[in-house]
Design goal:
alpha/beta, Rossmann fold, Aminopeptidase, 4 domains, 8-stranded mixed β-sheet, 7-stranded mixed β-sheet, 26 helices, 21 strands, about 20% strand
């Protein structure tokens, strides 16, 4: 029998429209009845921009109105009036990232319809296949995350619940529309929809040199559109003045700034578009991915006087790159989402504030508060934030400063899933500390196989957290096939990477433990909590028969120094920058259990032997400070008499430095290994190891030309030779 939609449910949706709110309808039961009710609601509402998300579209729904969950990001920047999210059909599951991304595309009056089994959370769904690292079967995993979602929805008074039997349970929406509607706050600016957005545009257009602007907003506040409006006005002003302006735009991916270019095209219809480049008589607006932007800055092809840079979703970009751009562009604005489905503006503010204060103390901040796509107090916004923990915040730790009061604890995923305050505090730590935290990370925390969560904290809550996962343990036959590139089992990132890049079968057959995340509350830093967490995990790994404890992160001098201080050594560096982050991924390991010392030594020695040739070719564009930090991990080679004589000929004579490059490389590597890490040594390493030319050195050091660079280079060699470690005791080795 074909399902019909109760009149009360349709009336409930009409009330949402009157209030410019959005809501969630949760339909539960068996596959056939739930899909029938979902389709009935689809046809009864008859909206103009619906979307069905699932493995395949149901009969009677056009293909263009259907989307698999894996392609959710393709709809960012779009708008929908109805979204049916199928987490029930064969092959379907609840994709947290897709749910979070698409919920923000629903406009006022819209309904997000979630289809699930009646016993949702009793078992994993099909999307858990992405969690099931080898050799685990998806159906054998726990489903604490889904059970938690079901409990929260069951307890939510603002959720429409339509079970298999009986009438829907409908929220009791207030009679009068809430205050603060967008129409009441409409500004004088005809291009803007709220006073907040108009103020943001005005600040962007008036951006002054060396006074960066940081824009923050929750989703749906028109932040990205404000960037587009500002671009249009800057182009118009340049045209009026008979000038040209160069505006670069960057974000983790082009889809993140689709709204910017839509507004730009609407306000400047004469603009000519070629790919991600927009050009008219007033100048150019060009999108560059973070890796390409950093490469151009390094080459001196981007930045400098008169250039502008607009960074959207800055929370999802490493602070090191943001700092590089801050130095290169005189006019720069950072925009980010405070509680986003990817990254978090709060963590961005904490990580980046110190650099802003140091480099540009006159920076300004502005927050857009008024929503545009929906009205204040929107039920769906609050519910989605709670379900996905987009607004999770860490609790303030004990401010006594005593390290000894921090209790170590191995968290139980089952207990965490039922302890909402502790889970929010713990996840809030991870969100705040890392530039890329997504809703699916919470599911991994609760249901990831071979995943372990450990904390240090006090009665107030966790002050530090580490998430680790066991890897390796392959049989010899599978390890051989993986090492040859014939198989790639799910998971085991570090083990498989070391096999592929270092040829290490032992990384596959042995047991490794990888630190996936580690975070310390800002108020508890410099108390040694991160060091203690790693030391305890290293000991626990050894007790469990794990050979190595390792980690992978974006290569940055400060992070490399931290891990090196804890006894970790670099064993791999990505040869290319990650497009979304602009950083090279680095892997580090430390011995933990039996066989670990020898394996770590072999891996680290192999990497150090390979490093000079990588720096000369594949990594010649690597940040010199990172190159120097990596060189510091090698064993310093003593300078013999011949090498010293070569270096003295350069320092005090006219010997061509290139002709004594091996001696210079030994001098630099030895200085780095002794802890020297100044900017001059990094620049010298860039020339000696990476082949950076005279023009690059002159620009980097602020020197006038070739003669000045040559004099600087000889002075650096003389200074290093005269250092206390090298000025005495000739003829070693």
């Amino acid at each position: 029998m074909e399902a019909s939609v109760p009149a009360g449910l349709l009336a409930c949706q009409e009330r949402l429209t009157e209030r410019r709110w959005r809501g969630l309808a949760w339909l539960t039961g068996d596959v056939e009845s739930v899909r029938e009710r979902g389709a009935a609601l689809w046809h009864a509402l008859g909206v103009t921009a619906p979307l069905w998300v699932g493995p395949e579209p149901p009969e009677g729904i056009a293909a263009e109105a259907w989307l698999p969950a894996a392609k959710a990001r393709t709809r960012l920047g779009g708008e929908h009036d109805l979204i049916v999210f199928d987490a029930l059909s064969p092959g379907a599951g609840f994709d947290p990232d897709a749910f979070g991304a698409l919920s923000g595309t629903l406009r006022a009056g819209g309904l997000l319809v979630l289809l699930t089994p009646g016993d949702w959370g009793a078992r994993p769904d099909a999307d858990y296949a992405r969690l099931a690292a080898h050799p685990h079967a998806p159906e054998a995993l726990s489903a604490h995350y889904l059970a938690r979602l079901a409990r929260l929805l069951e307890a939510s008074p603002r959720t429409i619940r339509w079970p298999a039997s009986g009438a829907p349970t409908l929220p009791d929406w207030p009679e009068a529309p809430p205050s603060g509607l967008v129409s009441e706050a409409a500004p004088d600016d005809p291009d803007c929809l709220t006073a907040d957005q108009a103020e943001a545009v005005a600040r962007l257009v008036k951006l002054r040199r060396r006074r960066p602007l940081v824009l923050t907003a929750d989703r749906g506040r028109g932040k990205t559109a404000a960037l587009g409006i500002a671009c249009a006005r800057l182009l118009a002003k340049a045209e009026q003045d008979g000038a040209e302006i160069e505006i670069l735009v960057t974000a983790p991916r082009p889809s993140a700034v689709a709204g910017l270019f839509e507004r730009l095209a609407a306000l400047r219809p004469e603009v000519r578009r070629q790919g991600n480049r927009f050009e008219d008589v007033g100048g150019r607006v060009t999108f560059l991915a973070p890796d390409e932007l950093s490469a151009r800055v390094e080459r001196g092809e981007a930045g400098g006087a008169g250039t502008w840079l607009l960074v959207d979703e800055a929370a999802a970009i490493p602070a090191g790159l943001l700092g590089q751009w801050l130095s290169a562009f005189p006019r720069i604005a950072f925009a980010t989402t405070v509680h986003g489905y990817e990254g978090a503006g709060r963590g961005f503010a904490l990580r980046f504030r110190a650099r802003l204060e140091r480099l540009t103390p006159e920076w300004r901040a502005y927050q857009l508060s008024a929503p545009i796509r929906w009205a204040e107090d929107d039920p769906l916004e609050a519910l989605t934030s709670r379900l996905l923990m987009l607004d999770a915040e860490p609790v303030a730790p004990d401010d006594s400063g005593a390290t000894t009061s921090a209790a170590w604890r191995v968290e139980s995923p089952q207990a965490l899933a039922r302890d909402e305050p502790r889970l929010r505090a713990l996840f809030g730590l991870l969100v705040q500390a890392h530039y890329r935290t997504t809703p699916s990370d919470l599911r991994h925390l609760l249901d990831g196989p071979d995943t372990r969560v450990v904390t240090l904290g006090d009665a107030a809550g966790p002050a530090a957290v580490a998430v680790v996962a066991d890897e390796g343990g392959f049989d010899a036959a599978l390890a051989e096939r993986v090492a040859r590139g014939e198989r790639r089992p799910r998971g085991h990132l570090m083990a498989q990477s070391l096999a592929a890049h270092a040829g290490s079968r032992e990384a596959l057959t042995g047991r490794l433990r990888r630190v996936q995340r580690i975070a310390v509350h800002p108020g508890a830093r410099r108390r040694g909590l991160g060091r203690e967490l790693l030391a305890r995990e290293r000991e626990a790994a050894g007790d469990a028969g794990v050979a190595l404890l390792g980690a992978s992160f974006g290569a940055e001098p400060g992070l490399l120094a931290f891990w090196r201080a804890q006894g970790f050594r670099t064993v791999r560096l990505g040869l290319t920058r990650e497009a979304a982050t602009g950083e090279h991924a680095v892997m580090v390991v430390a011995p933990a259990g039996e066989g670990g010392e020898a394996l770590a030594e072999r891996l680290a020695s192999r990497f150090q032997a390979l490093l000079p040739s990588l720096l000369a070719f594949e990594l010649k564009a690597l940040d010199p400070a990172v190159a120097l930090a990596l060189l510091a991990e090698g064993e310093p080679r003593p300078l013999d008499d011949a090498a010293r004589r070569d270096l003295e000929d350069v320092a005090h004579g006219h010997r061509e430095p290139a002709l004594v490059r091996p001696a210079l490389q030994a001098l630099i590597a030895g200085a780095a290994a002794r802890g020297e890490a100044d900017a001059d040594l990094a620049a010298l390493a860039a020339w000696a190891f990476q082949g950076r030319d005279t023009a690059w050195l002159a620009a980097r050091l602020g020197l006038s030309g070739g003669k000045a660079v040559d004099a600087w280079r000889r002075e650096q060699v003389a200074r290093r030779l005269a250092g206390p470690t090298l000025s005495s005791g000739r003829g070693e080795g």
